[in-house]
Amino acid sequence: xxxxxxxxxxxxxxxxxxxxxxxxxxxxxxxxxxxxxxxxxxxxxxxxxxxxxxxxxxxxxxxxxxxxxxxxxxxxxxxxxxxxxxxxxxxxxxxxxxxxxxxxxxxxxxxxxxxxxxxxxxxxxxxxxxxxxxxxxxxxxxxxxxxxxxxxxxxxxxxxxxxxxxxxxxxxxxxxxxxxxxxxxxxxxxxxxxxxxxxxxxxxxxxxxxxxxxxxxxxxxxxxxxxxxxxxxxx
Length: 235
What we know:
Blueprint: H1 2-15, H2 24-41, H3 45-63, H4 69-92, H5 97-106, H6 113-141, H7 144-149, H8 152-163, E1 168-172, E2 177-179, E3 182-184, E4 189-193, H9 194-197, E5 222-223, E6 226-227, H10 231-234
Antiparallel strand pairs: 1-4, 2-3, 5-6
């Protein structure tokens, strides 16, 4: 409730700006993403920013092309710090539903701390980067007509489709196959360009337009066995 009220006041403030200047990311989108993360994990805004910055290190390494060994090392160090925070947070924030779920993964003999940390990292980036990206896309591409005419669920999915915060995903071939004339062997790595797929005119007619569509399927959060656990928070 507090987050909704704060967002409403922020929107009113932005709506009242006449000739003023502000940075959408640093002055609005990033602080709001931190409030979402704070509510999801049950921590202070200061703690949420600490977690978000560690998540950003991991995210930047995954999103950068090509990856560098220094970037990978930085991401692994950030993951270690997240695991260290979670080891303490499991006790200090035990009443939070998300932390309870992570606690069960942490103490599962078949899983353990590393999978719990991986899930925690995905929730952090899924609660942070999509919110920042989608708020920016909403501000830049959606007019008042769309805001008045489209139902919120439709508008939300269209913005997520256009935003596609995580534009690349990696998969591995399970058997020999051919993609676009390129033969692949079992185990070959394939980079999926989710952002490109979400604006494929053969799948989404008039892909850059924000409008109601019969189907709202998109790949902003992945698909299949691997799906972003932060998707619900971002939505």
